[in-house]
Design a protein that fits this description.
By secondary structure, this protein is of the alpha+beta class. The protein has 2 domains: 127 residues, putative nitroreductase (tm1586), domain 2 (NADH Oxidase, 3-Layer(aba) Sandwich), CATH 3.40.109; 170 residues, NADH Oxidase, CATH 3.40.109.10. It contains 9 helices and 10 strands. The strands form 3 sheets. It has a 4-stranded antiparallel β-sheet, with helices on one face. It has a 4-stranded antiparallel β-sheet with strand order 5-8-10-9, with helices on both faces. The longest helix has 20 residues.
Length: 331
């Protein structure tokens, strides 16, 4: 029987809070590629590099975005527990899997916006369905951009008719490419769950509605692809943001995921729902064309869609707490 020892400075209840915040982060194909370890009272966020998606995420970009989102949740949990949180990304060049540390500082009450974002963690789900017809007000778009900018990342809105046409063309091209990519289809099927359950990994079947581009962002062989005019019309009914980083390093990608999650939680706090599109950006020609067509000042790491809910969605399964705690928590 494995016995657990207490990491220095954290109570069992606090560890539960930290681990559950980590578990609620979004991740590529819901693979949850992370571990939370401890070095005294310092938290170590470890990227599980054994979890790979060679067809969807060949260079691990989305896996790092996922770890960045997890870091945002963990840091918020530390703040809500009443501590300052000193965060360092990639602190040890000799351990590339150690993507970040969070060291608790002196007692400090969380700010109201931190409390609001933390409360949104449980309510945030990937909304891969059509939004309601209610448009997102411009002041909300400004707030979303500000939430990303606070983390040093640009959230570039795509609103112009010409830009929406260009994006529609690129999404259509990517969808057709992936629909005929047998390796990608096998991988998507492997990570698709046929039954709905509370614990585990992977995408529930209900999370990938048929014929829903660009809402699902995941293309199956059976997906009914809309033509360019229909796709463009759908995009005009959504609020689409491109998350752009100045460089394209592992550090940039981790920061992008961190900013994306904080922006998403702010959106949920304001009554919005959203989902992330990264699949098209793994085609080099699509990513390059998007950067050129939109005249982006950096590298697009993700597209994100926001709107108002048109109905409930099922929550994705999650691992159990014991599966995400590292060796620093186990004797």
């Amino acid at each position: 029987m494995v016995e657990r020892r207490q990491p220095e400075g954290w109570s069992p209840a606090e560890i539960e809070v930290l681990a559950r915040a980590l578990l609620r982060a979004p991740s590529v194909h819901n693979i949850q590629p992370w571990l939370l370890d401890f070095d005294g009272d310092r938290l170590l966020l470890i990227e599980r590099r054994d979890l790979v998606l060679p067809e969807h995420d060949p260079d691990g970009r989305d896996r790092l975005l996922s770890c960045g989102a997890a870091l945002a949740n963990v840091r918020l949990a530390v703040r809500v527990l009443g501590f300052d949180a000193r965060t360092e990304m990639f602190p040890d060049p000799g351990r590339p899997e150690l993507v970040a540390t969070v060291e608790p500082g002196p007692r400090s009450a969380p700010a109201p916006d931190e409390l609001h974002r933390y409360s949104a963690i449980e309510r945030r789900h990937s909304y891969r369905r059509p939004f309601s017809a209610r448009p997102v007000p411009r002041h909300e778009i400004v707030a979303l951009r500000a939430a990303a900018a606070a983390q040093g990342i640009e959230a570039r809105p795509i609103l112009d008719e010409l830009e929406l046409t260009q994006v529609a063309d690129l999404l259509e091209f990517a969808a057709e490419a992936y629909q005929h990519d047998h390796g990608y289809q096998r991988e998507l099927a492997l990570w698709t769950i046929r039954d709905e359950r509370a614990h585990g990994v992977g995408l529930a079947t209900s999370a990938i509605p048929t014929g829903s581009l660009p809402w699902a962002g995941l293309v199956r062989a059976s997906t009914a692809l809309p033509d360019r005019s229909v796709l463009k019309r759908r995009l005009t009914e959504e609020t689409l943001l491109a998350f752009v980083t100045p460089g394209d390093t592992r550090h940039d990608r981790l920061r992008a995921g961190y900013a994306l999650q904080n922006t998403w939680l702010s959106a949920v706090d304001h009554g919005l729902v959203g989902s992330v599109l990264t699949q098209p950006l793994h085609l080099p020609e699509v990513r390059s064309a998007l950067r050129d067509d939109l005249e982006l000042g950096g590298f697009p790491q993700a597209l994100m869609r926001f709107g108002y809910s048109s109905g409930p969605v099922e929550a994705s399964p999650r691992r159990v707490v014991a599966e995400v705690l590292g060796t620093g928590f186990k004797a």
